[in-house]
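hey so i finally got around to running the thing on that chain from the lab meeting. sorry it took forever, my laptop kept dying and i had to restart like 3 times. anyway pasting the input first so we r on the same page abt which one it is
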Amino acid sequence: ADRTLRWYIEDVWGHFDDDHTRPGAPLFPSERCNGDGSCSRVGDDTLRRGLGAAATNHLPNWPGKLTPHVLRHYCASQLYHEGMDLIAIQELLGHSWIATTMRYVHVHRTRIEDAWAAGQLRAARRLEGLI
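ok and heres what got predicted. didnt touch it at all, straight out
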């Protein structure tokens, strides 16, 4: 992400506006400029429509199902699955309550089974000398 953002800022950003470094200049301006020639920020609808068009073109079985919110859930679930703890995910997503974050994280059934099996193994090791 860092390399991509650096590339965008150094090589692309300046093509949208002559004064793109001024305070308050949009980082991701819309491709459509206003009547006075200035460009405004990309809105939620622009990103939502772009994602919808990409899903229609590249994921024909997912029409209308892939949204920014679905990607947010997927990202949270993947981070948890790869080992990031819930508190870090909560902070990343900006949730006030951990319960909200827990609704975002979809735990794979194998993760629950793996945790149970690991717990059983730990318990068996503790009992080895007693039997």
